[in-house]
Write a structure and sequence with these properties.
Distance between the termini of chain B: 43 Å
Helix content of chain A: 25-40%
Number of strands of chain B: 20
Largest interface: A-B, 29 and 23 residues
Radius of gyration of chain A: 18 Å
Order of helices and strands of chain B: HHEHEEEHHHEEEEEEEEEEEEEEEEHHH
Structural class of chain B: alpha/beta
Distance between the termini of chain A: 33 Å
Order of helices and strands of chain A: EEEHEEHEEHHEHEHEHEEH
Radius of gyration of chain B: 21 Å
Number of helices of chain B: 9
Strand order of the largest sheet of chain A: 6-9-10-3-11-12
Largest sheet of chain A: 6 strands, mixed
Strand content of chain A: 25-35%
Oligomer: heterodimer
Helix content of chain B: 10-25%
Structural class of chain A: alpha/beta
Number of helices of chain A: 8
Chain lengths: ~260, ~450
Amino acid sequence: MLKIEDLHARTEGKEILRGVDLEVAAGEVHAIMGPNGSGKSTLANVLAGRDEYEVTRGSVLYEGRDLLSMEPEERAVAGVFLAFQHPVEIPGVGNLYFLRTAVNSVRRARGQSELDPMSFLSFSDERMKLVEMDRSFMSRSVNEGFSGGEKKRNEILQMAMLEPKLAILDETDSGLDIDALRVVAEGVTALRSPDRAMVVITHHQRLLDYIVPDRVHVMSAGRIVRSGDASLAKELEANGYGGLGPSGDDQAVAVGAGR
Amino acid sequence: MTVTTGSDTTPTPFGTDGAGGLPDLRLAFDAAEPDWLSQLRSRAVDVVAERGFPTLKDEDWRYTRITPLLDLAFEPAASRPVSSPSPALIDELCGTSGGSRLLFVNGRFMPELSQLPEPAPGVRITNLASALSERRPVVQPLLEASFGARRHAFWASNVASAQDGLLIELSPDAVVEEPVRVVHYCDPAGTPVVAALRSMIVLGARSRVAVEETFIGSEGSVYLTNSITDVQLGPEAALEHFKVQLEPEAAFHLASMDVRQERGSRFVTNTASIGASIGRQELVVHLEGEGAEATVNGLYLPRGDQHHDCPVRVEHVAPGCTSRQLFKGVLDGHGQGVFNGHIVVHHGADGTDASQTNKNLLLSDRAEADTRPRLEIFADDVKCTHGSAVGQLEDDAVFYLQARGISKEEARSLLTYAFVNEVVDLVPDPSVGERLGRLVGDRLRGGSAGSGQ
């Protein structure tokens, strides 16, 4: 489904990705771990199409298409979803209106009929159960005044409603207490499916107790330096990221270290 | 009668020499008018000549250059043939629900296209021209006040030329349930004209009414609307006012609203400036009785080469009054928006609670927002806040929406709408709020303003 080859990207003149290779098949969950500054979030943002990153080399194929030539919204309607590390607050835009606009944009692009307000409401009611949200979230402005946990649940709700083929979760666990982490992880787990691939970016191992990945990759200094199965995450938990080679500004940061 | 118009040194183009400018005000004089009115009009012509029209040197006009307007050769509107908008358009603008609706074309009342209620006790809703003689005790002092020292020449010019307008007078305790809807339509039929309007809303103690005004004109036409509205609110009276300025983008719109409030009265206004080449909506509120409240909100959405100017002055004269101002501007193309907000807390106006917020969103590199909040406080124990901001759409928010499948263009329009929605949400009447939301939404999606037909 996703094939990244020799991907280089930079921002503000600084090279952050220095040759990423990664292949993800439908149905698989891949975890990407690594110390701060290793390029994990940059990779997520490059895949989603944020234009402040400039790709200088390499290619990304998504379902055989050149992902890098697509606009962010084209990627979204084609099934690429990024759960943001820092969801953006948008005062004045109601969550309900936002979600309906997004869902209908995606449905239109997929040749499906748009949902009228009533059918949308029953659809959203159903999906909200997944992340233990109620309708009161819908009448608020997008992420405005949401707690950290509420913002992340809202991201997972959007994922549940947009039904992507490739979901990239960028540090969805960061800033969550244990209850919120459980809700988010259960939501993600419920969305695992044979035709959906997931890339879970995390700094900590604890999320992977809930979402057991098929593959674990370690990023360091803009490259994937090690790959393995779920046991690699346990190993990192025990030994830290030390000894993985140069990792930008901070080598040998312990897993779970505060930022 | 000898009238002096203009001089060599002051910028007072009257067009008497055929070189363009505003029409000779005397052309509009009607020999059949009562003497007191003729005398006022003559005096007004003199006042205009003495003061001259404002220039950029006038503090209140610093950002608004009216020379494009003074360079045109205008005729008085009354001398032109009058057409009228289609009934469908009137329905669209006024709604089809009950209540009074008054249509003015080129500054003149059109009774056959209007709908006035059965006269109810204590309620007078009519056009000014038909009530002039009978209501002289109310009308004359308001016209004379137009010559006050702080008033620019368009006030006097209005006195000299306005033939008609809205008149609402309510006796104490009279309540008008349905909003009064007023449409001002202009069709200059080829030659630039001046449509001068004078409206008066005088509410007795505890009376209340809502007024919705729409200014519109035939597509692509050039004219000047010079509209002045005097409002007087008796003790505990309440006026809800809404105005949308949708003039064609080649027209000019200069409007002033002067509000005097007695004890415990309540005034709410929401104005939306959408059309006109130069559109100026001036508001002055005098809080003269204890505990009076004023909420003055507005939107301005200039694009292309449009210029919108919103001078607001709130005078806290009496103690314990409250005023709220929220003005938001969305500026696109080469558009320019000016917010000139002034709060004056007079000596003795203790316990004043005043706030003022102005926010501007620039959608283009060439657009300009000028914001000038001013506070002058001469009393103790007052609470005054003000803030202003000029910004652009946040890239992060645009990207967030794009990442959810919403096109960049739609994302920008959604965020822009969200920016102005705060003002739309403050409109007290839900149906009016809905209409404003629709107008603003159409506009932000690139629809044309001021398409009269």
